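Components:
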Amino acid sequence: MSENVEVKTLTIDGHEVSARRGQTILEVARENNISIPTLCHLDGLTDVGACRLCLVEIAGVSKLLPSCVTTVYEGMEVHTDSERLQKHRRTILELLFTERNHICSVCVANGHCELQSLAQSQGLTHVRLPYRNPDLSVDASHERFTLDHNRCILCTRCVRVCAEIEGAHVWDVMGRGINSLIISDLHENWGASSCTRCGKCVQVCPTGALFDKSKVGSEHPKYPDFLPYLNLMRESQ
Amino acid sequence: MTLEELELIVRSVRQENAAYDYEVNVCMDLACASQGAEKLRESLVAAGDASDKKIMVRRTGCMGPCSMGPLVRVDPDETLYSHVHASHAERIVQSLGDKPIPDLQCDLNEHFDKQVRVVLENAGYIDPERIDDYIARDGYKALLTALMEMTPYGVVHRITESGLRGRGGGGYPTGLKWGTVAKAGGDTKYVVCNGDEGDPGAFMDRSVMEGDPHRVIEGMAIAGYAVGASKGFIYVRAEYPVAVSRLTTAIREARRRGLLGNNLCGTTFNFDVEIRLGAGAFVCGEETALIASIEGRRGTPKPRPPYPAVSGLWGKPTLINNVETFANIPPIVRNGGKWFASMGSERSKGTKVFALTGKIKNTGLVEVPMGIKLREIIEVIGGGVSEGHTFKAVQTGGPSGGCIPAEMLDLGVSYDALLKVGSIMGSGGMIVMDDTSCMVNVARFFVEFCMTESCGKCIPCRAGTAQMYRLLSRICDGSATMDDLDMLEELCATVKETSLCGLGMTAPNPVLSTLKYFRNEYIEHIVHKRCPAGVCNIHAPAEVLA
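Structure:
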């Protein structure tokens, strides 16, 4: 750490907290045990600000800003849990549940799914929007893992971990809008792709979209915590 | 190239033109070209060759009233002929020096009198593929004046003084943006021209790029000098092949004349421009997505800050302006900021080009001073809706804008006034609707557009617009309930407040504005299973009809 660290003080939900210059609101909030829901953010990957669940209110700013990419400034007054935010978060979760075919009871990630946990913690008791029930495929061509598009929420964690950490860039997004799809290489079967079989994407996937074949029908907890550690070790080399 | 050399070109062009007694200008813009303007031009040339009069036939960019095409303007008497066919060529040539042909003459005095042409001053007067034509109408004078007589700071100051605001839709003060990029550190900076015009019903930027490409290049070069950039990119959508070819020609000609390249005008200033083609994604008009697209990546927006002015193309400070904004620069530098600020309203200066389309008599391109009443644009310049119909609403700002009802026609056009009534200035599309338009259906059309054009990165825009479209379809086919309407309003609020970029944030505007002014039409569809305009095909269940 450099010697002259600039310290900023701000309030989050009424708590006075201090932060280093350049830190994001999310980092500071988590350091101070203030929870902000996230889905596309993962410690160790670059942030894209796509899931919109970590939006926060900042006094004097009319727009809602994503806390994962918004850096702190002196005197900032952040609110992370207003009624307006809760309402938006629940609607966003509803949109996610209705977008594809999320059926928790038959999912390998049941009980270990970040989407499921978020719905519970945000108090999403029922879904008011109609389900879209899209017809999506499952790619089971890989010898060790399976990709089930029905459970994908397009958080792009797999895309980022493969490109940034593994350096293989097997995953990418195809199409646009509601028809976006995660693909391996140039839309080839995962099994026939340039995949290095490292399995990082499976560990970072927040839902049951990417899973280990040996875990089908059984409990499938995921361990994405290796990422910050891996980055730390690489940096120190 | 120096100012003196420029003057020499002007003189030689004038001399060349003086050899002709008459100039016959044929509009070759898309609307006229699709109705046989090329054949008409050939016939005019042939007829001119056959006669003993000295006639120059010139192809020009858009003259404005596209619904009257193909258009021909005969100079020096400025007679405008409309709906001209190749078979009329001989009659036109014969009439030169005599009385105009009454049955072809186009009476649009009111249409033109209300307009003020700054951006379009050359459109219809120059051959877009001839740089000398442009130079003869004061072209590149602004660039050379800026290079020889002004400091970069002076240029920024002049733009700030003019009060020009971004013409792409947001209305961000141009001078402020230039100042930010000029102050940003680093040796490498970029100037980017956003020509990814994608709003349905908007074609202002296309017409400027096709009709007067050098003006955009000149504007960019001045911007490069002002902010300290030596490289520019014009991002044009591939759906505009004519614009691409005209710009390519223009860049080549400008390089040949030494107006682009190294050591411009003998100074140390270097500037060159490259064209980049968009592959058809509407979202690439959003500046961060546009930057990603130029870099060769997937065109998806990024959260701002950092703004492109600080970290843009390849992480360097980047100035992004719209085609029309750049087209405003040369006249401002030439005539001064105060001249520009004298036009327009309090907080919106200058003129704005609008593409007038829909259920209106004179469709086409118009340029009006800011602050003009919507009523004047629609009833006087546009000629009103066709007979037997009544005006219902005007849609501005494309899929990001809203519908303005008849009661508000006396609104003066400015960024702030349009925002206040729930629409936006946008890039300048203006779609007029009469009593045959169903407002629910219109809202559904724009939401469908946003749904298919959403990049899919953030959830509210990706899935929210799809759900909104579904609810609107239900209303249109008569299967919706009042609960669906509540749900629709709630979704609009979430999509508007939580989306990542402008596309999602503004996607609910067409729905919100029609709900605000035409709520009864929604109720009619839902409760009475009836479409007041007779557009939606509702099969009402028997119990409702009974």
